[in-house]
């Protein structure tokens, strides 16, 4: 298979699958190494940009997915069924943030940070496919470990977890002050 055929085959696979496909699996399918497939994906992405295509490639860590350009969303929904819009409550967002930044994390660790039960929030995040069970911690009770999903990356426009914003020292200090105000400490001296 020459480069043109391999690039067309990759495009066909991504179009047909619809979800993300690991680059290693694409390499196996077209019988090329990962470096060559990554190069072909970059060419394909460039082809879409040069011809102002309505399609784009979305890179998600070690995987890639074909999708539509966000600027055509309004046009697409005129014809397609309107997707379910999910609005996350403050509680669910807080829980998701903890999972995203601390993963892998257990329910108990989340509850320790939040100071309240998080069963509902975790169930909602699992339902929305924003978090997933990663396995179990090797500790008494073998608690479930949670982490984010590719849907989390897609939903927040991230290519990988390294793209998540970092809190500044000022923000961290503000968070500490807010927490202290919420739970005043009584010291007996």
Short description:
It is built from nine helices and six strands, in the order H-E-H-H-E-E-H-H-E-H-H-E-E-H-H. It is an alpha+beta fold and 189 residues long.
List the helices and strands and how they pair.
Layout: H1 3-17, E1 21-22, H2 23-30, H3 34-50, E2 55-60, E3 63-68, H4 73-79, H5 90-102, E4 105-106, H6 107-114, H7 119-127, E5 131-136, E6 144-148, H8 150-155, H9 169-182
Antiparallel strand pairs: 1-3, 2-3, 4-6, 5-6
Helix pairs in contact: 1-3, 2-3, 5-7
Radius of gyration: 21 Å
* Mean of residue pLDDT values: 86
Structural class: alpha+beta
- Poorly predicted regions: none
User: What's the count of strands?
Assistant: 6
Q: How many H/I helices?
A: 9
Q: Helicity, in percent?
A: 40-55%
Overall shape: it is elongated
**N-to-C span:** 78 Å
Major sheet: arrangement of strands = 1-3-2
Beta-strand percentage range: 5-15%
- What pattern of helices and strands is seen along the backbone? HEHHEEHHEHHEEHH
Report the sheet with the most strands, covering strand number, pairing sense and barrel closure.
3 strands, antiparallel
């Amino acid at each position: 298979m020459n480069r043109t055929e391999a690039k067309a085959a990759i495009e066909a696979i991504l179009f047909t699958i619809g979800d993300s496909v690991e680059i290693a699996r694409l390499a196996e399918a077209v019988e090329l190494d990962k470096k060559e497939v990554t190069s072909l994906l970059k060419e394909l992405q460039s082809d879409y940009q040069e011809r102002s295509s309505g399609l784009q490639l979305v890179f998600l860590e070690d995987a890639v997915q074909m999708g539509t350009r966000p600027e055509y969303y309004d046009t697409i929904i005129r014809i397609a069924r309107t997707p379910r819009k999910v609005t996350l409550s403050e509680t669910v967002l807080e829980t998701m943030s903890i999972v995203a930044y601390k993963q892998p994390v257990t329910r108990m660790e989340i509850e320790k940070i939040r100071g309240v039960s998080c069963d509902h929030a975790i169930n909602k995040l699992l339902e929305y496919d924003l978090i997933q069970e990663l396995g179990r911690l090797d500790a008494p009770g073998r608690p479930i470990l949670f982490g984010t999903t590719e849907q989390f990356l897609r939903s927040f426009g991230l290519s990988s977890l390294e793209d998540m914003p970092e809190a500044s020292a000022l923000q961290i200090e503000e968070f500490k002050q807010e927490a202290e105000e919420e739970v005043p400490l009584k010291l007996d001296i």
